[in-house]
Specification:
This protein is of the alpha+beta class and 319 residues long. The protein is built from ten helices and 13 strands. It starts with a helix and ends in a 27-residue tail after the last strand.
Length: 319
């Protein structure tokens, strides 16, 4: 199957567990270090070791990451697994476009470390900053570390050996596409990268408009999870209580980005800064959108000129 077709496919809860098993195993192998050493994430290694990186060999670069003690495989195995259902994917995409540019806190995420899988692939960039060359995102991994929150966006592709800047690397069925590190107490711009999607979902999941459950997993998938030392009970599905609102929110966000306001339209939901006296700070809550206007009469795309004809003669009818 072509990579583009695979990257646009939907994910089921069972797919999410299988992919987590594959990725955690990959994190525990030399291929993860090899991928980083091959500059699979451009600028990542150079940012950590600006002087040593340019002249270091692949083996020397791998040694740098080994000494730096990357997040161990056991931590990823024990990480929470979040699955956003199809309607939730649309809502998160819309909500991330306007997420407030406020400081990042270590307690705002659903877990200190985790996997977020999207039932439907979501855009890697905000509507205001279109990037048609970027593939759709199927998953995000995150970890709260000493310096801030670090995230990786993942796209789907067939597993196998790939050439990364001249270095052969074995990759799982998810491809690590982009990495971000946002320091604590530093604001992030709305919708620019994966952190906005992650923050939007974390905030929405704590509000009454969503619900959380643990979907039933087939025994064969549970066997895969046990073999990979993954806790099945860590799997959570986040869904909207009113899934029909997601399409309206997404359409309204697209219309606002294009500068359009149809005659009958959905008033976009928005974030409000709610003050919490117990912690002496403001936190974001989502105010739900609502319909306004006549949805049966679309607004005309052209200006209409009305001409009034007066003093018309009455027609004469025979007696």
């Amino acid at each position: 199957m072509p990579v583009r077709a695979l990257s646009s496919r939907s994910l089921t809860p069972a797919d999410a567990i299988r992919l987590k098993a594959a990725v955690t195993g990959w994190f525990g192998s030399d291929h993860w270090n090899r991928y980083l050493a091959a500059d699979g994430l451009p600028g990542y290694g150079r940012g950590l070791w600006p002087e040593r990186w340019p002249t270091a060999s692949v083996a020397e670069r791998m040694a740098l990451f080994t000494a730096d003690e990357l997040i161990p495989e056991a931590a990823w195995q024990d990480a929470d697994t979040i699955y956003a259902d199809p309607a939730m994917c649309g809502m998160v995409t819309a909500a991330a476009q306007s997420f407030p540019a406020q400081r990042v806190r270590d307690d705002e995420f659903l877990a200190p470390i985790g996997f977020l899988f999207f039932a439907k692939p979501v855009s890697a960039a905000a509507f205001a900053f279109p990037a048609p060359d970027k593939p759709m995102v199927s998953a995000i991994t995150w970890a709260c570390v000493d310096d801030g929150v670090t995230t990786l966006t993942w796209t789907r592709q067939p597993p196998g050996a790939y050439e990364i800047n001249g270095v052969t690397v074995q990759l799982p069925a998810l491809y690590p596409h982009s990495a971000y590190l946002v320091p604590w107490d530093v604001p992030t711009q709305a919708g620019i990268h994966s952190v906005s999607l992650l923050r939007a979902l974390s905030a929405l999941a704590k509000q009454p408009l969503t619900r959380e459950d643990s979907p039933k997993i087939h025994q064969s998938v549970r066997t895969v999870a046990r073999s990979a030392k993954i806790r099945p009970e860590s799997f959570r599905r986040i869904a909207l209580r009113r899934p029909e609102t997601a399409a309206h929110e997404l359409a309204a966000a697209c219309a606002a980005s294009d500068g359009r306001t149809p005659a009958g339209h959905w008033v976009r939901g928005h974030w409000r800064q709610q003050y919490y006296a117990s912690v002496h700070e403001h936190r974001s809550i989502w105010i739900e959108g609502f319909p306004r206007g006549d949805f049966t009469q679309p607004r005309s795309l052209r200006d209409t000129l009305l001409i009034a004809h007066g003093d018309r003669r009455r027609p004469k009818y025979p007696a």
